[in-house]
Amino acid sequence: MNTIIQTTTNNLKASLLFYKKLNFQVISNEPLLLADGQCVIEINTNKFARKGIKIFGKNWDTVIPNLQKLTKVIPIKNGYLLGDSSGSWIYLINEDAPQFTTKAFSPSLLGKFSGLSLEVIDIEFSKKIYETLGFKITMGSAEKGWISMTNDNGFSVSLMSPNACPHSFYNPSLTYFNNKNNLSVIQKIRGLGIPIEEEITAFNPDEVADNIILRDAGGYGFFIFND
Question: CB-based contacts of 127: which residues, under 8 Å, 6+ apart?
């Protein structure tokens, strides 16, 4: 896996409690990495760190000129930094990715991981950014107001155009799609006493809250949704 999720926090104890309750497991202490069998999350306490993703590789010098034609790219200590039109940050790290297999760890209580979700002001611009980074469209289209893109390592990013989602949207967010099992997933989350940021009834004709949104201590969103 060459792509990990970075969240930030000024309350490490609260962040760890949130993830451990959901059955994420600590797989590294420096950096602090947690896995749920489907994705890897870094909790970064550095005050200069920002929420986004880290993509590891050693060939960024061939990619940077093409990215610079689209947006500003800032050199950092161990790679490069840029953003998309959602305001989310993308760290390009000039290193090999940490060596582990997420499948070795148990799934979290959140269900089936479906990738990063971003609400973007300019879907075509963001699409070009991720295409330059090696992502390819797997579902959707700009005309439909959403696009799902996946890289060669299986990490997916979904781009949503403005006014496409009738609920709060936190950039960036992680999406877990659980189809008919979502109500049981929500029940388990309630049982853990994890605060629910928003209960969503907009998609249910009986106004049942069958979709919810969580947020970790650093503000990263979690969409726990039906398909």
Answer: 137, 142, 147, 149, 159
pTM above 0.70, yes or no: yes
Taking alpha carbons only, the member of 76, 103, 107 closest to residue 92 is 76
Dist CA 48 CA 64 (whole Å):
23
Q: Are 211 and 175 in contact (CB under 8 A)?
A: no
Please state, in angstroms and rounded to a whole number, the distance separating the CA atoms of residues 94 and 190. Answer: 41
DSSP type of residue 96: P
Phi, psi of 84 (to 5 degrees): -110, -170
What is the H or E stretch that residue 89 is in? strand 89-93
Domains within the chain, CATH numbers bracketed: 3-102 (3.10.180.10), 109-225 (3.10.180.10)
Q: Helix axis angle, 123-132 relative to 60-68, nearest 10°?
A: 160
**Contact (Cβ atoms closer than 8 angstroms) between residue 36 and residue 113:** yes
C-alpha distances in Å from residue 62, one per residue of 57, 68, 72, 141? 11, 11, 16, 28
Nearby residues of 68 by Cβ (< 8 Å), 6 or more positions away: none
Pairwise CA distance, residues 138 & 140, whole Å: 7
Task: Give residue-wise pLDDT tens across range 38-68.
Answer: 999 999 999 999 999 999 998 898 999 999 9
